[in-house]
Amino acid sequence: MSDERDLVFDTLERMSSDIFIDRDVLRPDYVPEVLPHREGEIKRLTEVLAPILRRERPSNIFIYGLTGTGKTAVVRYVLRRFEDYARRKRLSHIAVAYLNCRHEDTTYRVLTELARSLGERLPFTGLSTAEVFKRFKEALDATGKSLIAVLDEIDFLVKKRGDELLYRLTRVNSELSKGKVSLIGITNDVRFMEVLDPRVKSSLGEIEIVFSPYDADQLRDILRERAVKAFKNGVLEEGVIDYCASIAAREHGDARRALDLLRVAGEIAEREGRRTVSVEDVRRAREEIERDMIVDVSKTLPFHGKLVLLVVALAGGRFDSTGDLYIKYRELAKGLGVEPVTQRRVSDIISELDMLGIVTTKIINRGRYGKTREVILNAEPNALIKAFKDDPRISWIFGNSRYR
DNA sequence: CGTCCACAGGAATGACGGGCGG
DNA sequence: CCGCCCGTCATTCCTGTGGACG
């Protein structure tokens, strides 16, 4: 989580471990030297960016792929190589900015970060955004640099602030005499492009690169590659990597998930003072991760969101129609002495749960008997119910035998 | 082959609270 | 510090829709 952990503490911890050599290798923000099964994407990205070496402006790039398909890793990897290459060849006109819009989610912050990558120093607050934009342009023109600006999780920025900034950034080249800007937008939201202004859409989507999910074999290669660096020799028992790979493959080929499983399994074994990691540890890691995820999600969910989720869990994790769900939801709300929200709102809540990945919905047409959504929980109902017992506004209802 | 079910989900609107610029 | 704006949660009203049934 935090990038500035205590070096001494960290080192001691690492040295005293019987399991890990370097657990950070398994963390999501680690960029490995080898990215198995992404050779095509790396090549494509390199080709598109290559003109920058001839001082030409590379096309804007839009990258789409589900979580854990290596989008960020590939981009960071390629950019790092470009920077190395530029340094070696003494090409000083190349500048790179990487920012994650989940964190940099205001116009001001994005612009100051971009300006900073050009060596411009700006206060973190105090200037108008127009002023920051002006200085950013001046810095570009003054240095004559070609900037590659990576906007990771770009959908967050657009959802919060709209596509105004993107529009201006895609147009900025025509206002510049010397500097150049190329954008790389990364997202895992399929519908992201649809919400964009058509002008931004065509400009950002000059080049599109789609990352497809990994299959189990590919995940296994990735895990093996990292495990060598992360774990001491012989720590992983037979089948551990295969099991992690197969779980993650089933859950839409998410490599981050696979690596998380492996790391948490290692931490469980370590915590218990064992010297090897077993398949059982992976199973427990999966439960632990799921529990954490549910707790995290339920913390951010609106109150009635929690209730809807609880209703699904109490029903064993599945509803064949949203109508049934709503009836049960009303009962629960009334049982709690809470005024239920409307069916329309519950419909949106279900969509939100779907987007968060905690529930999967599927539109079902039953002809004469109407159209509805089937709702399936992506988690162990009991784990979820347990998590909700901590919420004081809900927990007391479990005293009622009906809900036990 | 048209109807009509049981919802999906868009649009407009409002209450409320927090943050930000002046 | 105040007023304004914006995001979030929610309501009301609404139009759209795939296919089993008659």
In short:
This protein is of the alpha/beta class and 404 residues long. The chain contains 17 helices and 8 strands. Strands 2-3-4-1-5 form a 5-stranded parallel beta sheet, with helices on both faces. Strands 6-8-7 form a 3-stranded antiparallel beta sheet.
Characteristics:
three-stranded antiparallel sheet; alpha/beta; Rossmann fold; 404 residues; five-stranded parallel sheet; DNA-binding; 3 domains; 17 helices; single chain; Helicase, Ruva Protein, domain 3; Arc Repressor Mutant, subunit A
How would you describe this protein?
- There is one protein chain.
- With 404 residues, this protein is of the alpha/beta class.
- It folds into three domains: 39-211, P-loop containing nucleotide triphosphate hydrolases (Rossmann fold); 214-296, Helicase, Ruva Protein, domain 3 (Orthogonal Bundle), CATH 1.10.8.60; 301-403, Winged helix-like DNA-binding domain superfamily/Winged helix DNA-binding domain (Arc Repressor Mutant, subunit A), CATH 1.10.10.10.
- 50% of the residues lie in helices and 12% in strands.
- The protein contains 17 helices and eight strands.
- It has helices spanning 7-15, 39-49, 71-88, 107-117, 129-143, 154-161, 164-171, 198-204, 216-230, 240-250, 255-271, 279-300, 303-314, 322-335, 343-356, 381-388, 392-395, and strands spanning 61-65, 94-100, 146-152, 180-187, 207-211, 318-319, 359-365, 371-377.
- The strands form two sheets. Strands 2-3-4-1-5 form a five-stranded parallel β-sheet, sandwiched between helices.
- The mean pLDDT is 86.
- The chain binds a DNA duplex (22 and 22 nucleotides) through helix 15 and strand 8.
